[in-house]
């Protein structure tokens, strides 16, 4: 996030915003300055002139308020458009790289974006308006007496240097609060993913304890952040107060030496207060902006790493071989036998729990890197290739559905003909299930109150994989939630394709096992 990028997101609106803030600052300054004439008329007991200048002040103040309301509206539109653009880039980064945890993404897309909006973007616009008001106020003071400007500038330089004393502390506190928020979201995601299991075993106390620990840590970090910010504000406020008092005293000396009239002295005192109020806003804003440096650096890294990977080199594999393969998974090391899967083979992968069946599929998909050995991939001509892992079909044990229609979950928001969609719906025996829903395939999947059984969900995910029709298809217990008779029919249909199929299966009936060309049994 940068000020330049914020302006460039809509240059026309940004330019209009600068113009309106300039007009707002000018009219605000004029309003205060006109008070001098009203005061002088009051000291002369000239009621008509006093009322005249008061009326002019009110009109200018109304115009100034309109400028402020308009500029606030335009700025909010500008910042929301910019935040939307940044979110798109962050989402694009995680989509292309696949290197983010849900909790981390939530923290960046929600918490960090809010922090940057409140403590970076908004402070910059406050700096803009305050700087304009400050400059115009100094101009008015110069028209009254040049020494007021000299005294103001010297005091301003001293006060502006105060944030340097708290810069590192505020930045560290802000970064820590963001990290603890990410940790809390991670804990929420990890524990609530197993909420039904916790309920079944009445383990609510352990859930509360886990959340309480991270919540307390987050609260402490936020308290520390607020404490650090308060100390910085206190130091800045102290300098501000001394500055205001000094200018008021100097104006009083000029009045007693007949260098200023009474109205001029009061207005000068008012402008002095205004200058240091604006200076306070500038200092406070600078403190907030500097505190967000680490978050901005992280966001810059995410939004700059957006090279397209859709055109990355790689080909669609149809076969593969495993040679001396060793995978480190957690604290365990899994060694695999050498084998080759040829094009169009239909292979059943079996073995006891913990022998690394699902781990092997993840390695084939490129999600896990071998500790030793290799996996080699081949195309239809049996040529050794560098694989495009996205061209490998995969159905996981815990397949993912989205809060959209069944049709869109099958097509994954791509365009397919009705004939193609009906083919895979029939293949996975989903037709009768759809007939139970009033809206059929256009039924929206409810993620909060599930309206699909586990078997229906698996059928949708299988239909999705078959619609993609990739040469190599990996299946991790794809029909575990489907009754055995329907499961056997679906597996038979899947194996009738020209795809190379590797499927993990448990407790399959003998007649189903015979549908495969051969079986690879992994052992501990």
Automatic annotation (TrEMBL):
Q: Where are the transmembrane segments?
A: 12-35, 50-75, 148-165
Listed InterPro entries: AAA+_ATPase, ABC1_TM_dom, ABC1_TM_sf, ABC_transporter-like_ATP-bd, P-loop_NTPase, Sigma_54_int_dom_ATP-bd_1, Type_1_exporter
The listed locations are:
Cell membrane
Gene Ontology molecular-function annotations: ABC-type transporter activity; ATP binding; ATP hydrolysis activity; ATPase-coupled lipid transmembrane transporter activity
List the keywords (alphabetical). ATP-binding, Membrane, Nucleotide-binding, Transmembrane, Transmembrane helix
The cross-references to SUPFAM superfamilies, in alphabetical order and at most eight, read: ABC transporter transmembrane region (SSF90123), P-loop containing nucleoside triphosphate hydrolases (SSF52540)
- The record places domain ABC transmembrane type-1 at 16-291
Any one GO cellular component localisation term in the record: plasma membrane
Q: Which Pfam family, just one, is annotated for this protein? A: ABC_membrane
Entry annotated with the keyword Transmembrane? yes
Record carries keyword Magnesium: no
Q: Give the record's membrane topology.
A: Multi-pass membrane protein
How is this protein named in the record?
A: Lactococcin A ABC transporter, ATP binding protein
Q: Which organism is it from?
A: Lactobacillus kimbladii
Task: Recall the taxonomic lineage recorded for the source organism.
Answer: Bacteria, Bacillati, Bacillota, Bacilli, Lactobacillales
């Amino acid at each position: 996030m940068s000020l330049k990028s914020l302006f460039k997101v809509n240059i026309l609106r940004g330019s209009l915003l600068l113009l309106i803030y300039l007009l707002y600052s000018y009219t605000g300054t004029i309003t205060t300055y006109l008070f001098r004439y009203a005061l002088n008329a009051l000291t002369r007991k000239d009621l008509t002139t006093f009322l005249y200048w008061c009326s002019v002040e009110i009109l200018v103040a109304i115009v100034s308020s309109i400028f402020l309301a308009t500029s606030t509206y335009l700025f909010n539109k500008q910042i929301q458009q910019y935040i939307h653009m940044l979110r798109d880039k962050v989402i694009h980064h995680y989509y292309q790289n696949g290197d983010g945890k849900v909790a981390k993404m939530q923290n960046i897309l929600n918490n960090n974006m809010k922090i940057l909006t409140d403590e970076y973007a908004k402070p910059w616009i406050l700096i803009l308006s305050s700087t304009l008001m400050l400059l115009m106020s100094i101009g008015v003071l110069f028209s009254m007496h040049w020494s007021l400007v000299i005294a103001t500038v010297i005091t301003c330089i001293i006060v502006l240097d105060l944030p340097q004393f708290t810069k590192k502390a505020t930045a560290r506190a802000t970064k820590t609060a963001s990290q603890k928020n990410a940790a809390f979201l991670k804990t929420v995601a990890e524990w609530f993913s197993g909420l039904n299991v916790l309920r079944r075993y009445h383990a609510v106390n352990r859930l509360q304890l886990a959340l309480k620990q991270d919540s307390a840590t987050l609260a402490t970090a936020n308290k520390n952040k607020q404490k650090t910010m308060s100390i910085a504000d206190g130091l800045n406020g102290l300098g501000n107060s001394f500055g205001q008092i000094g200018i008021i005293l100097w104006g009083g000396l000029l009045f007693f030496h007949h260098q200023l009239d009474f109205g001029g002295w009061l207005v000068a005192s008012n402008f002095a207060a205004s200058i240091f109020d604006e200076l306070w806003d500038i200092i406070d804003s600078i403190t907030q902006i500097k505190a967000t440096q680490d978050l901005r650096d992280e966001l810059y890294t995410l939004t700059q790493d957006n090279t397209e990977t859709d055109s990355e080199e790689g080909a669609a594999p149809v076969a593969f071989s495993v040679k001396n393969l060793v995978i480190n998974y957690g604290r365990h090391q899994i060694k695999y036998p050498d084998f080759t899967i040829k094009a169009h083979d239909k292979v059943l992968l079996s073995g006891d729990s913990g022998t690394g069946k699902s781990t092997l599929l993840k390695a084939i998909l490129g999600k896990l890197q071998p500790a030793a050995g290799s996996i080699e991939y081949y195309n239809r001509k049996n040529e050794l290739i560098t694989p495009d892992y996205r061209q490998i079909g995969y159905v996981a044990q815990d397949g993912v559905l989205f809060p959209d229609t069944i049709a869109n979950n099958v097509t994954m928001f791509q365009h397919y003909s009705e004939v193609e969609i009906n083919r895979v719906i029939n293949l996975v025996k989903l037709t009768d299930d759809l007939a139970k829903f009033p809206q059929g395939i256009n039924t929206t999947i409810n993620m909060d109150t599930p309206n699909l059984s586990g078997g229906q969900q698996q059928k949708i995910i299988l239909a999705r994989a078959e619609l993609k029709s990739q040469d190599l298809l990996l299946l991790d217990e794809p029909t575990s939630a489907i009754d055995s008779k329907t499961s056997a029919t679906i597996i038979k249909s899947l194996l009738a394709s020209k795809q190379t199929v590797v499927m993990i299966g448990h407790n399959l009936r003998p007649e189903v096992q015979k549908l495969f060309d051969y079986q690879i049994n992994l052992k501990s």
